[in-house]
UniProtKB/TrEMBL annotation:
UniProt protein name: M20 family metallopeptidase
UniProt organism field: Erythrobacter westpacificensis
SUPFAM superfamilies: Bacterial exopeptidase dimerisation domain, Zn-dependent exopeptidases
PROSITE patterns: ARGE_DAPE_CPG2_1
UniProt lineage: Bacteria, Pseudomonadati, Pseudomonadota, Alphaproteobacteria, Sphingomonadales
Keyword Cell cycle set for record: no
Residues spanning the membrane: none
Length: 436
């Protein structure tokens, strides 16, 4: 359900009278700062428990470590088992407040890309920087969530708030079918007025940036076929062009005809021959053939990323039209797998961003710019973007995500928690009229 909540919040924070921190907001700032070392200790504890997506026991263990943290703040906590999609599950924490208070969804994830077989397993601190598996993606984001909520409790602004914290256990490799693995998250998005994604903070040349949009992440599989025979007949009316020329025609037409802003369509791998076959894992292919035989088959898989659903629909239609214009003696089929939808830029998202920038001014921080969506990958917040205004990139600053040596700027946990706590508290000042 979309509301004018974000626009109302923008108006309430943009006036000169609001251009300073309130006593409650000053309490939030001090509380986050005072609990810095405790937050680092919690980050170390949960980082040192391996929670690679496919380590179900580890994902559940980290979830259980977080249960008392949320319960201490008055949240009802539920572990949602996901064995039916071969994943560990999700941790949802809910706090019901005033009926007319805005409904805020905070999104993070417990899992990491580092499975137990990875040599990169432990948290290590060097001053205000730390390394560890998932330390910024996304265990640091979870700590930001908890630090912000504790600050709100200390300031009295958590009382009466309507908040759901959704920590998925398979963000790095969502379970299939995705409609089932993301069912509870989508339902939470339909409930929410505002969604905040606590993955890594975007920066540009050292400047903090706001994320109001993220692109989709989908894939496609292309197969072509042709009449096989002796190569001397290639291009003839009887033999045609063969599967590889048809594949080359299609891929080159994608390159030439599809380009538009924020649209990409990478080709990950391809193979052609007599025969060419896709691997059972859909991540490989095999082919054999001779130079004097016209190939009878070719296969390719690729990626498709878009900024809006309209762009997705337009690109899919254009790709299908290209695939259907076959060379003589050939045929082709393309199949699309739609995984992560886009988080499209909206007026509500922009209004939330401007509200956040008003908070930056009150905190004495540099204004944020808008981070280019083409430079951010897909994320769980995209599943709720059609229903609620949102901001992504609310987690800490770091580097090297998904690689050994992944690191986090520990002081950015403080900065981001202060921003989040004040943002949610200011949003809560605007009652929402709901239809009965």
């Amino acid at each position: 359900m979309r509301t004018a909540l974000a626009l109302l919040a923008l108006l309430s924070t943009a006036t000169p009278a609001a251009a300073q921190l309130s006593p409650a907001e000053e309490t939030m700032v001090r509380t986050v700062e005072a609990h810095f070392e405790e937050d680092v200790t919690l980050l170390e504890r949960i980082t040192n428990v391996n929670s690679g997506t496919h380590n179900h026991e580890g994902v559940r263990a980290v979830g259980q470590m977080l249960v008392p943290e949320f319960e201490a703040l008055g949240f009802d906590v539920e572990w949602i088992d996901q064995a039916h999609v071969d994943r560990a599950g999700h941790l949802f924490a809910r706090r019901e407040g005033d009926s007319d208070a805005p409904r805020i969804l905070m999104i993070g994830h417990i899992d990491t890309v580092f499975e137990p077989s990875s040599p990169f397993q432990l948290f290590a601190r060097d001053g205000d920087r730390a390394t560890g598996p998932g330390v910024v993606d996304d265990k640091g984001g979870i700590v930001v969530i908890l630090a912000a909520l504790r600050a709100m409790e200390a300031a009295g602004t958590l009382e009466g708030a309507n908040i759901v914290v959704a920590l998925t256990g398979d963000e790095e490799d969502a379970g299939d079918p995705i409609a089932q693995s993301r069912q509870h998250l989508i339902e939470a998005g339909q409930w929410a007025d505002v969604a905040l994604g606590f993955e890594q903070l975007s920066t540009d040349e050292g400047r903090d940036m706001g994320v109001v949009a993220r692109r989709s992440s989908n894939s496609w599989t292309l197969t072509t076929s042709g009449r096989t025979g002796h190569c001397s007949g290639v291009f003839s009316e009887g033999a045609g062009y063969g599967a590889i020329y048809e594949m080359a025609r299609i891929l080159d037409a994608f390159r030439v005809q599809l380009p538009e802003e924020n649209l990409t369509y990478n080709v990950g791998f391809m193979a052609g021959g007599t025969p060419a076959e896709m691997g059972a894992d859909n991540l490989s292919a095999t082919a054999v053939g001779k130079t004097n035989i016209i190939p009878d088959s070719a296969v390719a898989r690729g990626d498709l990323r878009t900024l809006t659903q309209e762009q997705t629909d337009r690109a899919v239609a254009a790709m299908q039209a290209i695939v259907d214009a076959n060379l003589p003696g050939t045929d082709a089929q393309i199949e699309f797998a739609f995984r992560y939808p886009p988080m499209a830029p909206t007026e509500g998202n922009t209004a939330l961003f401007e509200t956040l920038n008003a908070i930056n001014a009150d905190l004495g921080l540099e204004p944020m710019g808008v981070f280019p969506p083409a430079r951010r990958g897909a994320a769980d917040i995209s599943f709720v973007a059609p229903f609620a205004d949102g901001l992504a990139g609310m987690g800490p600053e770091g580097s090297g995500s998904h690689a050994e040596g992944e690191s986090v700027d520990l002081r950015s946990v403080t900065r981001q928690a202060q921003r989040a706590a004040i943002l949610m508290s200011r949003l809560a000042e605007n009652p929402v009229a709901r239809e009965e």
